Amino acid sequence: MTLPLAAGVLLGATAPWLGRRLPPATSVRLLTILMLGVALAGGFVLAVAGALMVGQIPVVAAEGQWSARALASGLPVPPAVGTLAAVVVAGLLLAAVRRAALAARDLVRASRACRRLGPAVDGLVVIDDEHPDAYALPGLGGRVVVSTAMLRALPAAERRVLLAHEAAHLAHRHHLWVQAAAVAAAANPLLRRGARTVGTAVERWADEVAAAEVGDRALVARALARAGLARTGSTRSGRSLALAGADSAVADRARALLAGPPPPRRALAGALTALLLVVATAALVTSVDTEVRFEAAESVYAAAH
Amino acid sequence: MAANGRRRGALEQEVLSSLAAAGRPLTVAEVLADLGHGLAYTTVLTALTRLHAKGALRREPSGRAFAYSLADDPAAVGASVTARRMARLLDAGHDRAGVLARFVADLSPQDERLLAELLADGRAQDGELQP
């Protein structure tokens, strides 16, 4: 019963390492699916522990027509833990629903912005702006928004890298993976580092797609460096340093590109898939076990009445 | 449709970017020179003609050829405001689970040094980035 929770601890602790080790596309897909599985299974076992407690409340037991005493006998969790689990799972469920609602709101905002940006030719929107910036906006086929300052900062070959990178975000629907990971992390806070790892890995994924498209990894690294420096220079001279203290993501990405193509790491991917199966099985076993327990309590109730 | 293994629409995006970066009308030859090796003159001409037909470009006679520039879009100012507001709004979340995927985030001072070195090395030779 504690296995899905243990898997959450393990996954949360190893996520950054896994993110560096696995190829980015594998990392995004596998980690997100695993996180959703672990969050669901973890929430499920907590809900079961809570239900076994709530089921012992006389009114509830009478309504459900089972024996509260039979349900209480030989429980795998102490009462205090069960009660706590019920409270925790309710809170986590609320947090996950809230996160999902925020994600939906952002998606609506993004597609509304796409509509307002008008029918961009080939999905590219050039903004006349002195601040170097470039981003992909999903919705209605998506838009790539680039400021003139960013375009001026880069030579043509590196502009091609930028466009390929942003197109990869849209083509592979990276925002959905990132948001799914965020919902999983809201449902299970042990997975927070995993969600951050997925956020970093989608950038690496888009870098790899761009590198494959232009056929030059060093060129992609240089594009990142030049765009990053242009942005930082402009931020310092003009805008506030609201994002100062940003992580070292850009340098890590450049380093990963120069290190050569990522090896597939099939064994590690296989191990993670196995972990997902184990967690799913554990949740299933808990489900069957609980059903048996309630059925037994029901037959005790039926015999007594 | 695809030139040199580019994805669909990629060359058009590059041509638009090239004209936007230049900030002045460019002839086919100038766009070709900017985009660099591996492209045929006719490929660039076709892309420019298509973009002009879509209304994205304006062209004016320049010698015996045409010079192309980005068309003045009446909605451009509005789009610019929308894009900036959007970026602010989607950036505001601290949880980084937003929908907006930015090419590069802001750099830490160490990153800045590292990446400046990378560019300097790249000019001398395609050197390795030292951690």
Characterise this structure.
The complex is a heterodimer of chains A (305) and B (131). Chain A has 305 residues and is mainly α. Chain A has one domain (3-304). Chain A is built from 12 helices and 3 strands, in the order H-H-H-H-H-E-E-E-H-H-H-H-H-H-H. Chain A has helices at residues 3-21, 24-54, 58-64, 68-72, 79-116, 148-153, 156-171, 174-187, 192-214, 217-237, 249-258, 266-304, and strands at 124-127, 134-137, 143-147. Chain A has a 3-stranded mixed β-sheet. In chain A, helix 2 (24-54) runs antiparallel to helix 9 and helix 9 (192-214) crosses helix 10 (217-237). With 131 residues, chain B is α+β, with helices and mostly antiparallel strands. Chain B has one domain (1-100): Orthogonal Bundle (Arc Repressor Mutant, subunit A). Chain B has a 3-stranded antiparallel β-sheet with strand order 1-3-2. The N and C termini of chain B lie far apart (42 Å). Residues 126-131 of chain B have low confidence and may be disordered. At the A-B interface, helix 5, strand 1, strand 2, strand 3 and helix 6 of A face helix 1, helix 4, strand 4 and helix 5 of B. Strand 2 (134-137) of chain A pairs antiparallel with strand 4 (101-102) of chain B.
Keywords:
heterodimer; A: 305 residues; mainly alpha; three-stranded mixed beta sheet; elongated; B: 131 residues; alpha+beta; Arc Repressor Mutant, subunit A; three-stranded antiparallel beta sheet; 5 helices; 4 strands; globular
Task: Set down the secondary structure blueprint.
The complex is a heterodimer of chains A (305) and B (131).
Chain A: H1 3-21, H2 24-54, H3 58-64, H4 68-72, H5 79-116, E1 124-127, E2 134-137, E3 143-147, H6 148-153, H7 156-171, H8 174-187, H9 192-214, H10 217-237, H11 249-258, H12 266-304
Helix pairs in contact in A: 1-2, 1-9, 2-5, 2-8, 2-9, 2-12, 5-8, 7-9, 7-10, 8-9, 9-10, 9-11, 10-11
Chain B: H1 10-22, E1 26-27, H2 28-35, H3 41-53, E2 57-62, E3 65-70, H4 76-91, E4 101-102, H5 109-124
